[in-house]
Amino acid sequence: MSTRIPTEVYAEMTPNPSTMKFVANRLLIEGGKQVEFTSKEQCVEASPLAAELFNFPFVQAVFVSGNYVSVAKDESLGWEMIVQQLREYIREWLAENEVAVAFVPEHLVPGPSTQETPFAESMSSSIDYSDMKPTDYDEEIRFLLDEFVRPAVEQDGGAIDFKAFHEGKVYVQMRGACSGCPSSMQTLKGGIENLLRSKIGAVKEVVAEEV
User: Fold this and answer.
1) Are 160 and 150 in contact (CB under 8 A)?
2) Euclidean distance between CA atoms 36 and 33, whole angstroms
3) Helical H runs in 54-119?
4) 87/119 same-domain check
5) Which pLDDT belongs to residue 211?
6) Where are the alpha helices (DSSP H) in the chain?
7) Of 47, 113, 144, 195, which has the fewest Cβ atoms less than 10 A away?
């Protein structure tokens, strides 16, 4: 008989009305990693928890980071009808299973730029980064995003990944609750763009791509 793991889970709204954040009292993914799945096929081996969540017909995406999982749903049902059921399901699953994410698939890892393979496309993208070479500004941009932007974005159940700096434009990818969020673009154009422009004169604009 397997030993149950004492587990508590609470639900938390995010700025994205289609996404709910479920926070557990233990880590769901190790090493500061993050991963977003948009289909059961992507996670059937990598994340048994995400694979189970995709069995709910209304689930469209699952994002796992630290001690929480963000679930994006379609418009077939309102959260008031399903949030308690989903919270209890996640709590019970975590009580019975120790490993929520076994590994992060290589193609779902946000690819940092390198001199050898500049901006390799490890995630799906509608923007061609192949001609965007690493620059002297990349390290400072990453520092500012990690120091001032990432904590707030993660608090809302999402993630932001730096992709490239090219011709005055900072390209980032939004994941989790930030992807498709009505307030994401406003926040990005307001706070993030103003921050980077005030600290780095070469920055003219921030371009966000949703995953």
Assistant:
1) yes
2) 11
3) 79-96
4) no
5) 63
6) 40-43, 48-53, 79-96, 138-144, 150-155, 184-187, 193-199
7) 195
The pTM of this model reads: 0.70
- What pLDDT, in 10s, does the model give residues 140-168? 999 999 888 888 787 777 778 888 898 89
Say which CATH number the domain at 137 has.
3.30.300.130
pLDDT at 184: 62
Q: Which residues of the chain have pLDDT under 50?
A: 1, 112-123
φ/ψ (deg, to 5) at 70: -100, 130
Which residues, other chains included, contact 28 with Cβ-Cβ below 8 Å and sequence gap of 6+? 49, 64, 66, 67, 68, 69, 94, 100, 101
Q: Which pLDDT score, from 0 to 100, does residue 152 have?
A: 79
The residue with tokens 């030993």 is: 3
Amino acid, res. 181: C
Assigned token pair, 192: 């993030």
For residue 101, tell me if it sits in a domain: no
Residue type, 53: L
Is 185 found in the same domain as 155? yes
Tokens of 183: 């307030």
2 is a domain residue = no
Count of Cβ atoms closer than 10 Å to residue 6 Cβ: 9
Looking at 66, 96, 126, the residue that finishes a domain is 96
